[in-house]
Structures are given as C-alpha cells and as structure tokens.
Design goal:
Length: 481
C-alpha cells in the first residue's frame, strides 16, 4: 500500500482522467478544431442514428498514433477496453458509399486555412518569396490481394517493375508556409495485353469484389475515376478546388504531367502560371520561327549556357512557343553532372533563379508521400471494398493536416518528430487511464470484501490535505466487471 501513499502519483492520475484531459492534447488542440461542426451539413442524412459520425472519423484518423493501421488491430490491443462500440460500426463507416470524402477533405483543408487566418499567419504579403501554389503528383499504393475492387498491375517508377496496387494522384496546396493534401484520386493501368486487362487474368478480374452503387452516391464517381486519364483528373480536381475558394498563383508538377491540355487550362483559362519539368522527348517547340525537338534545341544553344553561382548550376534560357503559347525554357545542369534537364515557366518575365526557387516548392509533395507512408500508414488498408480505401486515404490526409497545424503554430519540428510526440502522448494517456482503472478495481474489491464505504478506505490511505475532488472522481468511475 506504500504506492498509494504517493499523492503525486494520485494527483497525476487525477489530472489525466478529469473531463477532456483524458484525451490527448494533440486531439483537443489540433485534430478536433479541424473536424468542425460545419461538417454536419455535408454529412446530413448520411447517418441519422447511433454513434456520432465525426467522433468515429476522429477515432479512425488517430489509429496511427496508437500504432494501429487497421480496424481489426484495435480489439486485440490494449485500446479495446476504451472503445465503446463494436468493430462493425467502423467497418460500416469505411464501406459507406454515401460518404462524400472529397467534400470532407476539402472542407477540413479550408478550415485549416481559416484557422491560420484567425491567428494572422496565413497572409503571404508582398515581401514574401513564397507564393501560393497547386502541386500535384502520383505515387504507388501497393496491395497484396488481387480480389480488391479495382486493383490492377501498375508500373512502379521506383521499383522499375510491375506491382499490384493503385496509382494515387494527389493535389496539394502550398499557402506559403504549409503543404495541405486537398484532394486525391485512385487510378489503375489497363496494360498492353488484351488477354490480361489491367495485368490480371480474366479469372482474377471476375473474382474481384464488387457492389452496386447508385448514380447519386459519391463513391460511384470515385470508382469511375479509376479509368480517367490522370492529366484530365488533375484538371478536374483543380477546378473543384478553385470553386471551393482555394486559389493559387502557380501550378507545379514534374515532367510526367506536362502537356498541351494542362498548359492551356492553367495559363489560358485560369490565368495562373505553370512551372513544370519537360521530358527530352518528341515535343516540338517553335524557336526563331522553326520547330525543334528538345535535343535539337540543346545542341544549337549550348554556347549560350550561363552559370548561376548561388545554385552552382549551368542553365540555358530560351524564349520559345509551344502550341501557340509563349513560354520560357531553361535547360539546367548541376556542375557535377553531365545530364541536362528542362524546366519550363509560362511567366516569360521571371528570372531563372526565381523560377528554380518556386519550382523547388514542388518537393514538399514528395516529402508528404514519404512521411504519410512511413508514419501515417498511407496505403496499408487491405480491404476488398474500394470505398474503404478512399476512406482510409482521406483520414490519412486529415491526420496529416492536424500534424501540419501543430507544426505551424507550436514548433518547427518535422512531421515525423511531431508524430512520435503525439504517439507517445497517446500511449501515456492510455497507460495512465489503465493504471487508474486498476487502482479503482483494487479499492472496489477491498471495500466489497470488508463491506464498508470506499470513501473510508481512501481517507485512511491519504491525509486530510488530499484534494476532495479525488473522491468525486472515484464516484464517477464505473465499477469494473
């Protein structure tokens, strides 16, 4: 009984259990403000009874902080005792075809920007060198089951071989200080063999999970996006983001996405600037009244190469025309390399140094891919239902934005460090809660055995200076079975 005489331990347990303090500060201060009450308007009619849908989303988004990456892993773990519902509640939410995840993620990203405005830190003034940008890229989402709805063989540019999974196309927004994943879509690749569409045999395709979806259900649209061309899809996502009030000055992408359709949409239709990589391929640029391929342009303009001391790289600036649109081309090469690369800028008056500084912002989406896969479990969902994969990635984006909010206002640590701190905090809260419940169980067992009021035992264990709130707290603790 000496352990219970340490009032500091008891006071610590009390502080952990009091009201909202039993929850992680990270959830209270950063995740909960993002999952705001305005989402009820979006989710109106989706779930009319049972557990609060936003509470379920919040809980599922926090699973990586508990070291869990699937619903099935919850109940064998030490967290099972603190879950008030059965696993079917979570499965039904993730598989629900009526949930508009695109609207949910978009609403939460706008909430992030609004919170930043409230604290007066979003304004990117004229002195700032970091403009607002749309950034998009795709990444491999590998899977292990061929029965997953819509899965296919995709070519991995990282592994240089075909793998089973999806291509996830993400649209991000850089507001001058933080990167936000505001939209995404999943895609499959049909392949070149008619006998094996999507890289799978006809028998394997027939065995894939499938379910009927109504035309007015959001998941039907998401399923149809599997076969939409990625350059067309990113234009649709930017149109949706702009319609929701998210506006940018620049669009950044790598060489895999540069095409006439994208250039015309960004520059001609939306009056934004496009900075993108360009392949040394079969494109034709008009230079001084003649058409040249990228390799031909490089060979006739090498003598015009300049050297940027700040970046330690050679570059060749050229004013060219592509499909009737005036653009700048920069052939660039680092001092210790032999291979030339191409970066284009639709702003014909911007300097080379400024172009490179803005284009380097694109790297934050690559960091997003690495951090979400390493820490937040991006792509670890192995459900057969396609809707569950959309839900899983959406909640990964939500958790990432909560971490980004903490990084923005509290500290300048990396997302990985913030994740580890939040995970440690969540583990500490859970351990303290279990210790408190164990303490209550001991007290209740002793008082039941000796048949007297538990308050008498507590008063004997602790001196009179102990806070009386402890007794009230004990009264509110349910008897363990």
């Amino acid at each position: 009984m000496k352990v219970f005489q340490d009032t500091q331990v008891a006071q610590y347990l009390q502080s952990i259990m009091e009201k909202d303090e039993q929850k992680s500060r990270f959830i209270q201060q950063y995740l909960k403000p993002l999952i705001h009450s305005g989402l009820f308007r979006i989710l109106k009619g989706v779930k009319t009874k049972g557990f609060n849908i936003l509470s379920i989303v919040q809980f599922l988004a926090c699973l990586p902080l508990m070291g869990l990456y699937s619903i099935g892993a919850i109940f064998p773990s030490e967290y099972a005792g603190f879950v008030l519902c059965q696993k079917d509640v979570f499965y039904r939410l993730k598989n629900n075809p009526n949930l508009p995840w695109r609207k949910i993620v978009s609403s939460i990203s706008r909430r992030f920007l609004k919170l930043a405005q409230t604290k007066g830190e979003l304004q990117v003034d004229k002195k700032s060198n970091s403009p607002k940008c749309f950034i998009f890229d795709d990444t491999d989402i590998t899977k292990t089951g061929q029965k997953i709805e819509g899965v296919s063989k995709i070519w991995s540019h990282v592994q240089h071989r075909s793998v089973l999974g999806f291509k996830a196309l993400f649209l991000g927004f850089w507001d001058g200080k933080s990167f936000l994943p505001i939209d995404f879509s999943l895609h499959r690749e049909k392949g070149k063999k008619p006998s094996k569409p999507f890289g799978l045999s006809l028998k394997k395709l027939a065995q894939q999970f499938s379910k009927e979806r109504q035309d007015d259900q959001p998941s039907k649209r998401r399923k149809e996006e599997l076969d939409v061309k990625k350059t067309d899809m990113v234009i649709q996502m930017m149109q949706y983001a702009i319609s929701q009030g998210v506006k940018a000055s620049f669009v950044l992408c790598d060489s895999w996405f540069f095409c006439e359709t994208l250039l015309r949409f960004v520059v001609v239709k939306k009056k934004m600037n496009l900075i993108a990589g360009v392949k040394m391929g079969k494109l034709t640029f008009s230079y001084q009244g003649k058409g040249y391929s990228p390799k031909s342009l490089l060979s006739i303009t090498k003598r015009k190469a300049k050297f940027c001391r700040k970046l330690r790289m050679q570059y060749i600036p050229l004013m060219v025309s592509y499909k009737g649109i005036e653009i700048q081309l920069f052939f660039v090469r680092y001092a210790n390399q032999t291979k030339w690369r191409i970066i284009m800028n639709s702003d014909t008056k911007m300097s080379f140094l400024k172009t490179i500084e803005i284009y380097q912002i694109r790297w934050c989406i690559e960091v997003f891919f690495k951090e979400t896969k390493q820490y937040l479990g991006l792509g670890k969902c192995q459900s057969n239902d396609f809707d569950a994969h959309i839900a899983h990635i959406s909640m990964t984006c939500i958790l990432f934005m909560a971490l980004a909010l903490k990084k923005r206002f509290d500290c300048h640590e990396t997302i990985g460090q913030l994740f580890r701190h939040a995970k440690l905090e969540m583990t500490e809260k859970t351990l303290a809660t279990k210790m408190w419940l164990l303490f209550c169980k001991i007290i209740q067992t002793l008082t039941a055995f000796f048949d007297f009021d538990p308050k008498i035992l507590i008063k004997k264990l602790f001196d009179d200076s102990f806070d009386t709130q402890f007794l009230n707290l004990f009264d509110n603790t349910p008897l363990l079975e």
